[in-house]
Write a structure and sequence with these properties.
Low-confidence stretches of chain B: none
Largest interface: A-B, 27 and 20 residues
Low-confidence stretches of chain A: none
Strand content of chain A: 25-35%
Number of helices of chain B: 13
Distance between the termini of chain B: 54 Å
Radius of gyration of chain B: 25 Å
Largest sheet of chain B: 2 strands, antiparallel
Structural class of chain A: alpha+beta
Number of domains of chain A: 2
Shape of chain A: elongated
Strand order of the largest sheet of chain A: 6-7-8-3-9-10
Oligomer: heterodimer
CATH class of the largest domain in chain A: Alpha Beta
Helix content of chain A: 10-25%
Order of helices and strands of chain B: HEEHEEHHHHHHHHHHH
Structural class of chain B: mainly alpha
CATH architecture of the largest domain in chain A: 3-Layer(aba) Sandwich
Number of strands of chain B: 4
């Protein structure tokens, strides 16, 4: 371990309610988040990602396990004694305070001098480009501006860790893209550890240094965006991160015999028996039918998406596969329904999934 | 030359006035009328057996603060009147303050319950409104009088050996008014707390505020409209309270309301009663202006 650990969860468990009605929101989750990294907790709603964030923030205490900050056990510390700040999904800005007073609130509570608070507030206002809005009330700002105030407010006390609970989900697409880059910039500039919660896989892939994919209160996989996208551990991760085609078959030496009867090479590493393969739609090429080494298929449908055209093709046994082709300048890929085509997978495109 | 458009808008304006005429007439007659009568009466001379004589006099206004010595006929500051004013203001302020202290946690508790419990609790709060004020006040009387429930119980338990003299004191009046007006504090507070975004509490804790700081710096400023509304709703009727001081304060601990009543009854001095009523109105108006100013200033700077 070269980089020092910022936040660590050790077998953190969280149960809500007891007995039969009880729900285990987090199931013995252990994870180490490095200092200064942009770490994302990704998963569908109810996967426990927000619960884990709330344990780190201190709004909840774990049923079992520990939360450590820079090696110190903070499991029992209340939120106001943790050098950790949160950007809330709803922003939760104080409606009775001006933008400047909102941003200065944390420092004021920490007992900083008036001059200190003023200096830090001004610095933050510049950082999020809201200088001219300092005396406005939060409700007089647009959603994107409120978002930036929430960010500035959480960053102003210079926390060790910044927690972000789906902060971009209320913004429209264009603004969201803009804020994604802004967040990344702020993280690089301040060097603060960011822990970001989202259910949007694209957001996770574009911003994170590392991603933890969660499901049903457990972490399934931790890794860099490339790692997770290209080497998903199981069907759930592969399906959740981007679109994927699943192919089932049986191992035959170093190859896999698909249910359609076609033979495909895959990095089996000695696995045998029933095998599930995953292939990303953009790593599939179409070629002439019957070309050696290609899979036989027929065109079921084509859907135009602008830059891409999605080609739904069916294998011999009816297995449907989606191939993503770049749309030609004419906009028409020139494939008619029912046409026979061949399928090729790019080198290393085929992934073998765990159970 | 008036254009067709001008004529149309003139006709339109006339229609608007005609349509609002019933409301305006009612307002003038019902709101300003009685007030005007009271104002006129305050400048007249008292009649022999009540009522007024139509002779202009400012004696009633002087009489608010001064009274004529029956022996040497000189005007002296009326200590008794000032005592009554002071008692009214003091008891109303105490009532408002204590109704807030008791009402705030109550309203908070109700607002943070589930939908079913909250309906039931609000129902309980409103029940007293359906009961006659007189009955409720006599119920308090039954509890605190010398042979009442409280004293009997305390005597029986051996906590005291002589009954506590609560009834017919200022404290009894304060107790009764707090009980009677408490719902008027709880309801606007509830409405305000119900709209309060509880996530702000977490935001406050997260930004290093202690529980006390969260309450003082976030909760109180945000729910302030409810606090002000509740305080006004309690303070104003307390100031003019009549039944409660009469029943729980006995004859001695008069408030303005009883004093006014006295002028129209046994005192047979209607003009003084009228000028006292106007003074009460004035105090309330000043209090309201003060409240509104206070509220606005805070929210502007906040």
């Amino acid at each position: 371990m070269t980089t020092p650990v910022s936040v660590e969860a050790r077998s953190a468990r969280k149960d809500y309610g007891t007995g039969d009605e009880g729900v285990r929101a987090l199931d013995d989750v252990s994870v180490r988040i490095e200092k200064g990294e942009f770490f994302t907790l990704l998963g569908p709603s109810g996967c426990g990602k927000t619960t884990l964030l709330r344990l780190i923030a201190g709004f909840e205490t774990p049923t079992a396990g520990q939360i450590l900050l820079e090696g110190r056990d903070i499991t029992e510390d209340p939120p106001n004694r943790r050098p950790v700040n949160t950007v809330f999904q709803s922003y939760a800005l104080f409606p009775h305070l001006s933008v400047a007073r909102n941003i200065g609130f944390g420092l004021e509570m920490l007992g900083r001098t008036r001059a200190d608070v003023k200096r830090a507030t001004e610095k933050m206002l510049t950082l999020v480009q809201l200088e001219e809005f300092a005396s406005r009330k939060p409700q007089q700002l647009s959603g994107g501006q409120q978002q930036r105030v929430a960010l500035a407010r959480a960053l102003a006390p210079e926390p060790e860790v910044l927690l972000l609970d789906e902060p971009l989900s209320a913004l429209d697409l264009k603004l969201r893209k803009e804020m994604q880059r802004e967040l990344k910039r702020l993280q690089t500039e301040t060097g603060i550890t960011f822990i970001f919660v989202t259910h949007d896989q694209e957001e996770a892939l574009t911003m994170s240094d590392r991603i933890a994919v969660m499901r049903s209160g457990r972490i399934l996989q931790v890794g860099s965006p490339r790692d997770i996208y290209n080497h998903p551990v199981d069907r759930f991760v592969a399906d959740f991160i981007g679109e994927t085609n699943f192919l089932s078959g049986t191992a035959e030496g170093a190859q896999v015999r698909l249910t359609s009867g076609d033979l495909v090479s895959a990095p089996l590493n000695g696995r045998h028996g029933e095998i599930t393969l995953a292939v990303r739609p953009e790593q599939i090429r179409l070629c002439a039918s019957g070309e050696p080494g290609s899979l036989r298929a027929t065109i079921a449908d084509t859907v135009y998406f602008g830059t891409d055209t999605h080609c739904h093709v069916a294998l011999n046994d009816g297995t449907e596969i989606v191939a993503r082709l770049q749309s030609p300048p004419s906009g028409d890929v020139g494939l008619v329904q029912g046409a026979a085509v061949g399928l090729r997978f790019e080198p290393d495109a085929v992934q073998v999934l765990g159970d | 030359m008036p254009t067709a458009e001008d004529k149309a808008s003139a006709r339109n304006a006339r229609t608007v006035w005609l349509l609002s005429a019933p409301a305006l007439v009612l307002l003038i007659l019902a709101a300003s009328g009685p007030l005007l009568i009271v104002l006129v009466y305050s400048f007249l001379t008292p009649g022999e057996y009540g009522n007024v004589e139509w002779a202009f006099s400012t004696k009633a206004w002087v009489g608010i603060l001064y009274s004529r010595d029956i022996f040497d006929g000189t005007w002296k500051l009326a200590d008794a009147h000032l005592t009554i004013f002071w008692r009214s203001v003091k008891l109303s302020l105490y009532t408002t303050l204590f109704a807030f202290i008791a009402g705030f946690p109550t309203a908070w508790f109700i607002a943070t319950r589930g939908p079913r419990a909250r309906t039931a609790l609000l129902f309980l709060i409103t029940i007293p409104f359906w009961t006659n004020l007189l009955v409720r006040t006599f119920a308090i009387n039954q509890i605190i009088r010398n042979e009442g429930v409280l004293n009997t119980l305390l005597l029986w338990l051996g906590v005291i050996d002589t009954p506590l003299a609560i009834i017919y004191t200022d404290f009894a009046v304060f107790l009764g008014m707090t009980y009677v007006y408490l719902p008027l504090m709880v309801l606007p507070l509830f409405a305000s707390i119900d709209r309060f975004d509880m996530r702000l509490l977490e935001a406050g804790y997260d930004l290093y505020a202690s529980r006390w700081q969260v309450l003082r710096r976030i909760v109180v400023p945000v729910v302030k409209p409810g606090i002000i509304a509740g305080s006004i709703l309690v303070f104003i009727p307390s100031l003019g309270a009549y039944v409660t001081p009469r029943i729980l304060g006995g004859g001695r601990n008069m408030m303005i309301g009883n004093f006014i009543d006295l002028q129209f009854g046994a005192g047979r001095n209607w003009p003084l009663g009228a000028s006292l009523s106007m003074t009460l109105l004035l105090i309330v108006a000043v209090a309201l202006v003060f409240y509104v100013r206070f509220a606005n200033r805070e929210s502007r700077h906040g």
